Hints:
Elements: E1 6-12, H1 27-39, E2 44-48, H2 61-76, E3 82-86, H3 90-99, E4 103-106, H4 116-123, E5 126-130, H5 148-166, E6 173-176, H6 185-193, H7 195-199, E7 206-207, H8 214-218, H9 229-241, E8 246-249, H10 252-267
Helix pairs in contact: 1-2, 2-3, 3-4, 4-5, 9-10
Amino acid sequence: MNGLPRVMGIVNVTPDSFSDGGRWTSTKAAVDHALKLVEQGADVLDIGGESTRPGADPVGQAEEIDRVAPVIAGVRARWDGAISVDTMKPAVARAAVAAGATIWNDVTALTHAPDSVAVAAELGCDVVLMHMKGEPRTMQADPRYDDVVGEVRDYLAARAEAAMTAGVARERIWLDPGIGFGKTPSHNMALTARLDVLAALGFPVLYAASRKRTIQSIDATAVEATDRLGGSIALALEGARRGARMIRVHDVRETVQALKVQAAVVSAGPIGE
């Protein structure tokens, strides 16, 4: 590990997100929550107005803008750090950047609309390209791969190349393996264990496994999303150890503390010294 990865705090301005849907639907509540995450140590805030949980229904473009743009503007008025918009729609990304966002986090890796890559290049912001097999409503219906690590790597390498060809600067591109997006628990564990394969492409990696259902597949008692703190931290630490440069989480304070302790142990030297 070369330094601590950045921690991205999740702010869902949605009624139906899998973990905290409905908690921050007013602009004031969402802005207050976002600033609380900053106080807890978040380096980046990821603000989303459309749930991408398995089975989620899509949200109209205008409604999504109405959800996220005021929150981004409200946070930007009180904080000068990095703000990400979690959207697949180019028009939402454009409105978000106009409101103060500096990162476009796209679960479709700029494939949702024909002009996605062109808009990303036009905006000049950082872009997170994530792998998803299928789309949110159906992605968990028996996903299959011959080689999940290789297929995800090759897909993201191709999407990064497409983005650069369209004019997105290489240094603006992040890659996300898409834990839980069209993957079984065994796929998720394989991608986590071989995160170095993705990092070897030369782009910084974002790792996002916070509170996801794959934790319940390992610990059956973790039925509710809020029961998965221990598993979330374990996966965050593994993601960091295996090359992730940013960790996307709900529980910022606890994750920041865990990463600091892990870094202290690593700096003390290898086993046997």
